Amino acid sequence: MQDPILEELYEIREQIMEECGDDFDVLMDQLQHVRERYPDRIVTLEQMRERYPEKFKNHPTFVEPAEVASANSSASP
């Protein structure tokens, strides 16, 4: 099954990496420049948690490392 949205994202990713000469450091420099130029467009994890508390509650990707360690230690026998 092909997903046209994913296909488009993959194409865009390839274009961006080509523009950076397939150099990850160049990509990171460009991203930092964008962050500095458009600071009002950056969304933090904390903002997402506040806006969508139920969506981010207990999701391992969005739990702080200390919370994960605490949960793992309490789950041990």
Describe this structure in words.
This protein is mainly alpha-helical. The chain has two domains: 1-39, no CATH class; 43-77, no CATH class. It is 68% helix and 0% strand. It has five helices and no strands. The protein has helices at residues 4-19, 24-37, 45-51, 53-56, 65-75. The protein is extended, with a radius of gyration of 18 Å. The termini are far apart. The mean pLDDT is 82.
Biggest sheet details? none
Based on CA inertia axes, which overall geometry fits?
Answer: extended
Strand portion: under 5%
Order of helices and strands: HHHHH
Tell me the Rg in angstroms: 18 Å
Structural class label: mainly alpha
Helix content: 55-70%
> How many individual domains?
2
Distance between the termini: 43 Å
The strand count comes to 0
Low-pLDDT runs of 5+ residues are: none
Number of helices: 5
Q: Mean pLDDT across all residues, rounded?
A: 82
Tell me briefly what this model is.
The protein has five helices and no strands.
Descriptive keywords:
single chain; 77 residues; mainly alpha; 2 domains; 5 helices; 68% helix; 0% strand; extended
Give the SSE layout.
Layout: H1 4-19, H2 24-37, H3 45-51, H4 53-56, H5 65-75
